[in-house]
């Protein structure tokens, strides 16, 4: 069940209550730990969230970049922080769902030590091929791949990342052989794709959209359950022959799980207000991110459970492992 349709569980505007600045908490500026390097899209999102939360809470929210080890360094720091609500994590599927499935041992237990208080945005992926590939639909791509003894190659940016897992989920559902070719980042992967070195990529829509619009890539389908406003003529994979297919990445806010409930309530109220600001929604829609409606705690837990089931199945079936945590 997609987030957008969990209307019954969404927090109503009326529940947002009084402005955060009227409350005694927080006593000092909270910090938002971002487990990614400065300058990227996640960092841009984090700084916009920090500004919005600061306005709601009446205290500046300080952004602290702690990149490295596939988000493990930053997530571990927040998991081990004092449970006072003053240390927040720019959480993602990687830090809360994928890493516990991919690594044999982590310095934190995501389910025990971290609590996701809000899922802020989802990032759709798009299935793209080079314009020279003689396919114009998912069905034609599947037929093309099955007609080759070794299948075709897809581009990814490493093992266990959402781009790879989305491709493997597709391969399992469609019954086609796909071979992973790893590149050191999205830019070289897309360059190889446009040159025809690989035949397909399941890319974050924000990076592929300019090349789709310029005709350097052909979009076959999007990975969301519903079509996207930025690509209204591009079908979903689910409607293209793989019912139930969905693969997105997401970002939100998490805290140490032992944070007291009154503080959690304040954080949820402030975050919900930011998520419903029209300018915030518009800004990130323009960057290919879908800002989500605020959800109650039970809906967030259900969403995370669904993510663990989906990606856990792919990771186990393909034997993907990243060994011990770095």
What does this structure look like?
It is a single chain. The chain folds into 2 domains: 3-123 and 249-324, D-Maltodextrin-Binding Protein, domain 2; 125-240, 3-Layer(aba) Sandwich (D-Maltodextrin-Binding Protein, domain 2). The model is unreliable at 4-10 and 12-23 (pLDDT under 50). It has 11 helices and 12 strands. Helices cover 38% and strands 20% of the residues. With 326 residues, the chain is an alpha/beta fold.
Secondary structure: elements and pairs:
Layout: E1 31-34, H1 41-57, E2 62-65, H2 72-79, E3 87-92, H3 93-102, E4 103-105, H4 110-113, E5 114-129, H5 138-146, E6 152-156, H6 162-174, E7 178-182, H7 186-194, E8 200-204, H8 205-213, E9 218-222, E10 248-256, H9 261-275, H10 278-285, E11 290-291, H11 297-318, E12 323-324
Parallel strand pairs: 1-2, 1-3, 4-12, 6-7, 6-8
Antiparallel strand pairs: 3-10, 5-8, 5-9, 5-10, 5-11
Task: Please supply descriptive tags for the structure shown above.
326 residues; alpha/beta; 2 domains; ten-stranded mixed sheet; 11 helices; globular
Task: Give a nutshell description of this structure.
With 326 residues, the protein is α/β, with parallel strands linked by helices. It has helices spanning 41-57, 72-79, 93-102, 110-113, 138-146, 162-174, 186-194, 205-213, 261-275, 278-285, 297-318; strands at residues 31-34, 62-65, 87-92, 103-105, 114-129, 152-156, 178-182, 200-204, 218-222, 248-256, 290-291, 323-324.
